[in-house]
Design a protein that fits this description.
The chain is of the alpha/beta class. The chain has two domains: 1-106 and 259-362, 3-Layer(aba) Sandwich (Isopropylmalate Dehydrogenase), CATH 3.40.718.10; 129-255, Isopropylmalate Dehydrogenase (3-Layer(aba) Sandwich). The protein has twelve helices and 14 strands. A hairpin with a 5-residue loop joins β11 and β12 (274-278). The longest helix has 19 residues, at 14-32. 49% of the residues are buried. Bound molecules: 3-isopropylmalic acid and magnesium ion.
Length: 362
């Protein structure tokens, strides 16, 4: 089998972590006798520097042509003063929309070896296994009208939180089906006590639940969900929520796992096609220092195997290799705990090499 993968390293530490992700994929090729074909393209600030646009047509067509997209991260402070249409973040939103990647899966799992790395108490985080399903192509992120305009003699900034029925319905189906494969519990998060967009959200999710009688559906307001996530995260199995709430809750939830550097993501359309990226950003201050944790990216490669290529064995092998390396005490700085003697501090490439070899050995 041959699979075509678009490699979009992006800015900051993006290219370095994608290199480690590809290293992992090299091991999978050797182990399973399959072949990945790569095509590289620019996205974000580096693309803007190259051609004046953060998401060039050429990049989009490479992404559209591939079976899966593997993305590092975009953004750098030096682009903070650019007009909004050409900021690096716009490229990320643009590619999600152009490929119709409406369902963003962000798993939050706590490796037993890392329960001490979280800022929360070990007994609170041990065994946490949550799947956040974040709607990714609607909401206040894309709603029109939007802008900054003079109204009654002063400037006003505004965005439109808007959800169409079909947008809610399709992501709800993904969430229910995800729950069916797990512990069959789905919590829909909204703010329907205040927002009309959320009132419709709740109504549609409830209607979709008729097709999934085996899944237990509950609803929670987003402010309560933010609190419950750190009070008792083990109460959650699958969470489904809108774009902006999902953005915020997934960063919060990442700290349960100990580090933003541990969390992968998959952004999926109706087809097998997906975009796989760590949930963390480009961390420009860490660029070139070989310190950033590549595990979020490597676990994103595992999600690519599972969701785009249907290679569950390859996905499991990558996840087991990561577990095994953590068990042996290897840590990048973000998850390193100096008080624990049996730990070895490694860099980005060191961690990538260890996982590569582990995949071949397991
Ligand atoms: C994320 C990021 C992006 C988002 C930014 C970089 C546009 O925070 O993927 O969570 O808000 O979706
Ligand atoms: Mg975010």
């Amino acid at each position: 089998m041959r699979y075509k993968i678009a490699l979009l390293g992006g800015d900051g530490v993006g290219p370095a972590i994608i290199d480690e992700g590809v290293k992992t994929l090299n091991a999978i090729e050797r182990k399973f006798g399959i072949k990945f074909e790569y095509e590289k393209a620019l996205i974000g600030g580096c693309a803007y520097d190259d051609c004046g646009h953060p998401l060039p047509e050429s990049t989009l067509s490479i992404a559209k042509d591939a079976d899966a997209v593997f993305l590092g991260a975009v953004g750098d402070w030096k682009y903070d003063t650019l007009p909004p249409e050409v900021r690096p973040e716009k490229a990320l939103l643009g590619i999600r929309k152009a490929l119709n990647l409406f369902a963003n899966l962000r798993p939050v799992t706590v490796f037993d070896e890392l329960t001490e790395a979280s800022t929360l108490k070990p007994e609170v985080v041990k065994g946490v296994d949550i799947m956040i399903v974040r709607e990714l192509t609607g909401d206040v992120y894309f709603g029109q009208p939007r802008g900054i305009q003079e109204i009654n003699g002063e400037r006003a900034g505004f965005n439109n939180m808007i959800y169409f029925e079909k947008e809610i319905e399709r992501v709800a189906h993904v969430a229910f089906q995800t729950a069916q494969k797990r512990n069959k519990k789905l919590c829909s998060v909204d703010k329907s006590n205040v927002l009309d967009a959320s009132r419709l959200w709740r109504e549609i999710v409830t209607a979709v639940s008729d097709s999934y009688p085996d899944v237990e559906l509950t609803h929670m307001y987003v402010d309560n969900a933010a609190m419950q996530l750190i009070r008792n995260p083990k109460q959650f199995d699958v969470i489904v929520t809108g774009n902006i709430f999902g953005d915020i809750l997934s960063d919060e939830a990442s700290m349960i796992s100990g580090s933003l550097g541990m969390l992968p993501s998959a952004s999926l359309s109706n087809h097998q096609k997906g975009l796989f990226e760590p949930i963390h950003g480009s961390a420009p201050d860490l660029k070139g220092k070989n310190v950033v944790n590549p595990i979020a990216t490597i676990l994103s490669a595992a999600m690519m195997m599972r969701y785009s290529f249907g290679l569950d064995d390859a996905a499991l092998l990558i996840e087991n290799a990561v577990k095994s390396i953590l068990k042996k005490g290897y840590r990048t700085q973000d998850i390193y705990n100096a008080t624990q003697k049996e730990q070895t501090l490694v860099g980005t490439t060191g961690m990538g090499d260890l996982i590569y070899n582990e995949i071949l050995n397991l």
